Amino acid sequence: MTARAGLAPYPSPEERDARLGALAAAGGGECLTIGTTHRGRPIRVARIPSTGAPRRGAGPPDRVLVCAGIHGLEYIGCVSALALLERLAAADGPLARLRERAEVWVIASLNPDGYARAWEIEGEGPLDDLRTNARGVDLNRNYPLPAPQRPVTFNLGGWRTGSAVPGNAFYRGAHPLSEPETAALAALHAEQRFAASANLHSTWGTLIPPLTPASAHQRAYRHLCRVFAASQSVARYKRLAWSSLDRFIGEQEDYQHHVLDAWALCIEHYPVWRELARHQDERVFWRFNPRAPERWIANDVPGIVAFLNAALDLGRPSRHAPNVLPPRL
Ligand SMILES: [Zn+2]
């Protein structure tokens, strides 16, 4: 069996990048390289310009980000990001509204080395090989912690998430932004000051907002998650928030909310329990990605668009409450 057949209907790394470029052009935008991985692969982003008229004296339009593929094997996020880009080109309804008010930036794979590794080994192997970047770092544990939080390792059902030990599937790296992928995303944020970010993962069928003790922010995220779920037609994802299951462990959405003042949501596509029986004996890859992604793309892309529109309606998080944290949550 060839690798191509092994992970079909998902795109190869080359097909993914070709589609990103073609869809950026179809949307009247461009494709930019924002960094280079340890293995020399470009990290690419599509920029789709706003269709709105320039606002006199109001500066450039808002910008929003859709960021997929921080974990190498979570291809469903990548194809959802590409599908959103495809629909933007022929925008109507909520997509037209989004384009009118904001530039939309789409990263289909923030971890192209991890994506290529999953492709090469046909999604078979331990999670450590499929989730991390080429240096074995869990990129979603490699972001700066909001002050004054200190690094912790959190034991979640036997998984030592945010581990300081190399070789763990949840290894946080030598220091925050030690990896070219996370450093590239931080630099892009500094340049573009995104107002909101949808971070695409799999496989729990949930929406995970940043950890925050501010009741105004908790209220806002409850609203954003409700708006997301109300746009879903097959399965409405539940919000998973502010519980004993969460800590500050260097995740992207906590960094974006607390440090960068952007609304951020971790979207876990595709509730695997819906097809669990089918996947019990399958490769790890098929526990993270549905065999037929179209149904989940149709379910989730409207939710992403609804979230981004609703986030733009709110203004920045700092308009609602200051982000002041106690020493340890
Ligand atoms: Zn993930």
Describe what you observe in this structure:
It is built from twelve helices and ten strands. With 329 residues, the chain is α/β, with parallel strands linked by helices. The strands form two sheets. Strands 1-2-4-3-7-10-8-9 form an eight-stranded mixed sheet, with helices on both faces. Bound molecules: zinc ion. The site of zinc ion (ZN) has 3 residues, from loops. Zinc ion binds at residues 71, 74, 201.
First CA to last CA: what distance? 49 Å
Task: Let me know the CATH homologous superfamily.
Answer: Zn peptidases
CATH names the topology as Aminopeptidase
**Inertia-based shape:** globular
Summary keywords:
alpha/beta; binds zinc ion; 329 residues; 10 strands; 8-stranded mixed β-sheet; globular; two-stranded antiparallel sheet
List the helices and strands and how they pair.
Elements: H1 3-7, H2 13-26, E1 30-36, E2 42-48, E3 62-68, H3 75-89, H4 94-101, E4 102-107, H5 112-120, H6 127-131, E5 154-156, E6 159-161, H7 180-192, E7 196-202, E8 206-208, H8 215-230, E9 238-239, H9 252-259, E10 263-269, H10 276-279, H11 285-288, H12 293-314
Parallel strand pairs: 3-4, 3-7, 7-10, 8-9
Antiparallel strand pairs: 1-2, 2-4, 5-6, 8-10
The structure holds zinc ion.
Residues 71, 74, 201 line the site of zinc ion.
